[in-house]
Specification:
The protein is an alpha/beta fold. It contains twelve helices and ten strands. The strands form two sheets. The chain has a seven-stranded mixed beta sheet, sandwiched between helices. The protein has a three-stranded mixed beta sheet with strand order 1-2-3.
Length: 316
């Protein structure tokens, strides 16, 4: 039987074959939620995963080729920061910035484990120094400054390193008159750093004001699943054009917290990207496989707009 025929049979008898594969692969088959629960298992070596939406079994190799979009229902699964960079930036043009920055345990925070040990663990698990990668590159030939948050590193939480790297990226983009893109994927501020993490919201917003209002340069945030807390309350919603992926969960506080605070029932799906778009909080909802083309067209329109300042990079 050919591989294509095997997959056709899998789709036809989805329930039976899915159950068989799940039993056969056992520890290797984990959904994204289960991966967080069994955090010590190295899921990068697994052959199969499960769609969070339709629960269909997905072959990891084909899933990566499909930009981590489920072939059955079109659901956008979580994507690593490195995969995002490969998706958006032209090959061979990426130049990372501030890779040597690491978090310090100023508060000596400890719960079930010390903050220092947690950071070390996630550094080994993801190969990153913190929850964001920043740098410059070309998007269809256009020079851009890009920051990509990674939810796999402590839930993409915004600590002092994340805030400082974003701030330096914005300042560099402002000096070089480059457009800015930040891909958001975060659970909010990092509680292990207390007030230091909350300060990053104001710091980033202040340099963004210079980039956008004073220098009239373009900033586009891309909101992915999930974008919550302090990221939503600051730079996530300050873009000139705010883009979200389909079905992305975007919120400040979770549904349960809101219901307990307001003491009233909140409708299901009100914090999904489509609902926010209907209420005017987003400008575009763009599928992942079209995002590079859409961004390229936006930059082309922006570059041809009248009344541009002389220091803009399009006029160099």
């Amino acid at each position: 039987m050919s591989l294509m025929n095997w997959f056709e049979d899998k789709r036809r008898f989805g329930g039976l074959i899915g159950a068989f594969i799940e039993k056969a692969t056992k520890g290797y088959v984990l959904s994204e939620r289960e991966k967080d629960r069994y955090i010590k298992i190295d899921t990068t070596k697994g052959l199969w995963t499960r769609c969070d939406n339709c629960e269909n079994m997905l072959y990891v190799r084909f899933l990566r080729q499909n930009r981590r979009i489920c072939e059955e229902c079109g659901y956008h699964l979580q994507m690593s920061s490195t995969e995002r960079i490969e998706l958006l930036i032209d090959r061979g043009t990426w130049h990372p910035m501030d890779e040597d920055m690491v978090a310090r345990d100023v508060l000596r925070f400890s719960d079930e484990d010390s903050y220092k040990n947690r950071v070390t663990f996630y550094q080994k698990r993801t190969g990153l120094t913190d929850a964001i990668q920043t740098g410059i590159g070309k998007l269809d030939g256009t020079p851009v400054a890009l920051g990509v948050m990674d939810f796999q590193f402590m839930g993409g939480s915004m600590g002092s390193v994340v805030g400082e790297k974003i701030t330096r990226l914005i300042e560099y983009a402002t000096r070089k008159s480059m457009p800015l893109i930040i891909v958001c994927s975060s659970g909010g501020a990092r509680m292990q750093e207390g007030t230091l993490s909350l300060m990053q919201m104001a710091k980033i917003s202040s340099v963004l004001q210079i980039h956008q209002a004073q220098k009239r340069l373009l900033y586009i945030p891309i909101l992915t699943y999930p974008t919550t807390g302090g990221v939503t309350a600051s730079f996530g919603m300050l873009g000139d054009i705010i883009i979200a992926e389909p079905k992305a969960y975007i919120a400040f506080a979770g549904k349960r917290v809101i219901e307990q605070t307001l003491r009233q029932k909140i409708p299901d799906g009100f914090q999904v990207a489509e609902s926010l778009f209907d209420h005017g909080l987003l400008d575009l909802i763009v599928p992942r496989n079209l995002s590079k083309g859409v961004l390229s067209e936006i930059f082309e329109l922006y570059g041809s707009a009248p009344c541009k300042e002389r220091n803009n990079y399009y006029f160099r």
